[in-house]
Design brief:
Strand content: 15-25%
Structural class: alpha/beta
Order of helices and strands: HEHEEEEEEEEEEEEEEHEHEHEEHEEEE
Low-confidence stretches: 7-20
Number of strands: 23
Radius of gyration: 24 Å
């Protein structure tokens, strides 16, 4: 998804890979060569760097066709098979003051801290450090990047708290901090990011809302443009009884992930469905690893108009699957009910209306399958 976003980002910009009239500037060429020398390039990913005088022709480097300034640096490593850059990020990067796109994802920086000098690249609009083995704390200097639209720090080894300085990123549209080791209170200043469309801060194990003010989660209701929200494993969300009503105020929400915060039925059922503005927009709902029982199905049926992906694994869903499940949830493409306590019989009637279903997981339940001989599964 982020690579697609990168392509769309480039379409709206003035990129080039060299032309007959303009070549890159000497100072910027030297900066790139200094960066190359600081990297450990086991797979010769940067073999083109230095092969010609015009750095605009080097792999991963794109320039403005009018000025010759390097404006884009895409040095993401390969994922399958893994082919990362290693070593250090040279301070010579600061000489690329017109840089507005930097992608260092899928590399291996051996738990080193994200360089504080990134904060001096004030024209950056896109910063992707996904899965690159960065460690230490998130530098508060990143809060200086006021033009930043996308910040992806997910799947690293980051520790400490989320700095409230990130609230200064007034242009930010996508913030990915998930799958790290972040701890402490989620800063309510994030509610100032009124342009935010994606907020992913789940799977950190140590994040929580302010113990002294459990209504502090109300800042979420300011993020009216949110389409994707992941608060999975935020430790004390189950104590915030107004969580769902607040999330329900988000009219454009398409993806909601609330896995494993010890949620019980009352955390959901205390909110009338007509108070949930996202009921018509929601496409993906993940409630894995909670303590939910089958009594939540009536609420799910009220969210079913467009719901395509439903994840309910590892809960306490017991009893038979309702006969009208397929009729009420007929938009589903993915359904995961694994690791629950379901029993009873599954037959044609449960699936006849699930014509879009492509992925079904009912493993680790106590269900009996009983289908007619001529029945053809819709998936």
């Amino acid at each position: 998804m982020l690579h697609l976003q990168a392509e769309l980002f480039m379409i709206g910009s003035c990129w080039r890979m060299g032309d007959a009239n303009t070549s890159c500037l000497h100072k910027e060429r030297q900066a790139l060569l200094s960066m190359k020398n600081a990297f450990v390039d086991d797979y010769s990913c940067l073999s083109s760097w230095g092969s010609s005088l015009d750095c605009c022709h080097w792999s991963g480097t794109l320039c403005n066709r009018h000025t010759g300034h390097v404006e884009m640096l895409d040095l993401h490593g390969d994922d399958h098979p893994r082919r990362p850059l290693r070593g250090e990020i040279s301070t010579s990067l600061m000489d690329l003051q017109n840089l507005n796109y930097l992608n260092l994802s899928f590399n291996d920086f051996n738990e080193s801290q994200i360089p504080k000098f990134f904060g001096s690249l004030t024209k950056l609009q896109y910063l992707d450090l996904y899965w690159s083995s960065f460690g230490g704390k998130i530098p508060i200097e990143l809060g200086k990047l006021s033009d930043l639209r996308v910040l992806n720090l997910s799947s690293n080894l980051l520790v400490g708290s989320i700095p409230f300085h990130l609230a200064n990123l007034s242009s930010l549209q996508k913030l990915h901090l998930d799958s790290n080791d972040l701890v402490g209170n989620i800063p309510n200043q994030l509610g100032n990011l009124s342009s935010l469309e994606i907020l992913q801060i789940g799977y950190n194990d140590g994040l929580k809302i302010d113990d002294k003010s459990l209504v502090a989660i109300e800042w979420l209701s300011n993020l009216r443009l949110l389409t994707s929200l992941d608060l999975s494993y935020v430790s004390n969300l189950n104590y915030s009884h107004n969580l769902l009503p607040i999330i329900g105020k988000l009219p454009n929400l398409r993806e909601l992930q609330l896995a494993s915060y010890n949620m019980i039925d009352n955390n959901i059922l205390s909110t009338p469905p007509f108070h949930l503005n996202f009921s018509a927009s929601l496409l993906t709902l993940a409630l894995d690893d909670n303590k939910l029982t089958s009594s939540l199905f009536p609420l799910l049926f009220n969210l079913s108009s467009n719901l395509t992906h439903l994840f309910l694994s590892n809960n306490h869903l017991g009893g038979p699957i309702p006969d009208d499940f397929g009729r009420n949830m007929n938009s589903l493409v993915t359904l995961d009910l694994s690791y629950n306590e379901r029993n009873g019989t599954i037959s044609d009637i449960h699936f006849d209306n699930l014509t879009n279903l492509q992925c079904l997981d009912l493993s680790d339940n106590l269900l009996t399958l009983k289908f007619s001989a001529n029945w053809i599964p819709p998936f």
